[in-house]
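Subject: mismatched residue count in predicted assembly?

I count 750 residues in my input, but I want to confirm that the predicted structure covers every chain. Input:
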Amino acid sequence: MKMKRLLSVLISLSLVAALAACGSGNTASSGTQSAAGSTTAGTAAKSEGKTIEYWVSWTPGADTEKASLPMFKEWEQKTGNTINYSVATYDMLHDKLVTAGAAGNAPDLAWALPEWVGEFNNMDLVVNLTDKFNAWNDKSNLYDSVVKSMKVGDKVIGIPYEMTLRALLVHADTNSSAGADVPKTWDDLMKLGDYKQKTGKYPYGIAATGVRSPQELLVYLAQKDLEIATLQADGKYKNTWKDNPDQLKKAAEVFQFYKDLIDKGIVDPNSKTWGWEETDENFATGITGMYVSGNWLAERESTNANTMKDVQIAPIPYPSNGKAATYMEVKPMFIFNSSKNQDEAFDLATFVASKEFQEAAFKDRSPRSDVSTDSKWCKDFKALANDGIIFPPVTLGGVTKAMIDSVAKVLHDGMSPTDAASWLSDQINASLKDTNELSEK
Amino acid sequence: MPSKNQTEIVKRKLSRDQRSKVTAILLLMPAVIFLLGLIAYPLVKVVFDSFSYSHLINKTLSGFAGLNNFKKVVSDEHFTQALINTVVWTVFSVLGEYVLGLGSAVLLNQDIKGRTVFRIFIFIPWLVPIIVAGMTWSWILNPDFGILNNLLVNFHFIKTPINFLGDKNIAMASVIFINIWRSFPYYTISILAALQSIPSDIQEAASIDGAGMFKRFFKITLPQLKSVSLVLVFIHIIWTSINFDFIWILTQGGPNYATETLPLMIYRYSMKLFDVGAASALSTIMIIFMTVLFVFYYKKRSQLSESAM
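Triage response: the counts match. Full output below for your records.
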């Protein structure tokens, strides 16, 4: 009888212990890997070192990962710390960071997109790195525009690890078959109505959904000298299109451009529902003649050697009455407030931003001025840097959703370009109001 | 520390019945902690948040919101469409799964050659992880390089490829079809098990009495499946209506909200707009729907049990 009772108590205790273990903050979460590539479940940090939780978003097996892993090992050996990295797509990474951050269980360091700068700062998830950044000797090797994009006001909240600009990628052979020159303006683009007939391929592409869609719309708006949210005297932001008829007219012209691209057969009608996955794939496999994308497509030269061999790089077409503009995407690494290893995380972040690491893993798309190559993927892209624009540092979740919806309203629902511009202006301001960032001026 | 004597007194005071109750409580404790911590607390928190201003970014929003969160989500321009989509997605998915599951179970219950192999193969779609099934189907249906469009065009069934997941008029139907494909094996296996438990002598007696194949199916087989069907249908109504991942993988609620259901709308409010109060209000609306459904199911189930007695 005694034994029975003892056994039942032991079973109960072990069940409670098992449940407690499930919910504990064990650093070795499933699916994560150490720099050596083995799963780290059950492994502990070196007795003298710390384990840095590092969330990244590279393509498994691609060049960036291959080049980064040996560098991680090198850092581990040098510092005695261990890197425990997890890989997720940017969409997943965003949601994971928001939920983990809200629960106070964020990683030490993570890759991020520039669109998250405003919202992560407003959520108070990320560490103010201003002092550490100012004391960092290597900071002078970053482009000024790069440093600016890491700031909210005067506060530095990120360390850059990658910089890409958008350019018009052109399949030169396909263009030759169509007898088409590289379009410089929107009007040139609209003259390519017979391109599909001559080559069997659409001349251009757009992303109408996903993270790429608002980035493209931002560029076309900037080419018309428009901002989605303008800084006001009170330090807050506002979309001003409806206060200024000329701005609203210009915004409507951008939506008209989208409509014309479909109506005149310049882009595939199916692109109304495409995101970057389809558009990049279609360009890399030669289904589309030209597309605005980034220099990460250099990686496709090895996987799609035949279709990528004729690629040329040119500025993005802009309106005749507008100006050249391109999206500059400077990707930050954030250190999270919940991290207990902020010094080590900063050391790792600056190691990733160092010349040695950048030359190994990001040589064509480095935010450093002293890292570059002679390849077209670096030289031709960086030549466009002066026209680079970025998102305003506000919470962009609702804003970018409204931007995607506004394009959909024109392309799917047949809303007039003027109404779409007016609708988007209202939605941006409503979103800014929801997040307490709307200027009352 | 109680002395040995005191312990003996406590032991003597507890009867055998009391001791077994204490043991039962101890054994139940982990499950109770689990239920309270992982189910009851989040549920109560969601209901509480639905009546509060709670925003991940705008910290000036706080306090009691009354019904404002509910008003906000109900007046959302996409709410009505999302509600209709949820009903359409649920009803047609469950209906299709049931019809296909019942049909395939009846066929697999026949004495045919290779029956075991068929039974194994039919279960495969259900074994495929949702992410794999979703990604595979989105490639199969792709208008540019999808195999289905390729076959349809090459065999001259259609002139131009169909954008199954990108055309807002057929996207929902496509998603429902894929969901049926993936889920019907679960019905097949469950109904097949129930079919095999029907005594063959009832069928034989009916056959001798002159009942034809259809009459035997509708008068004998189907009534015997009432109980398992009720469980299957109600469980799947709940599983399907709250499903998030399958639609998300295939269309992310698009094109232009054509396949957005209430769970996707909850996601949009919480993870894109960071409005936890509004997301909780939507979740509470769904909890109410599900509770009503469960009460209905419970009553039906009780009626069935009583009539079987």
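The CA atoms of residues 37 and 69 of chain A lie 8 Å apart. Marking this ticket as 'not a bug'.
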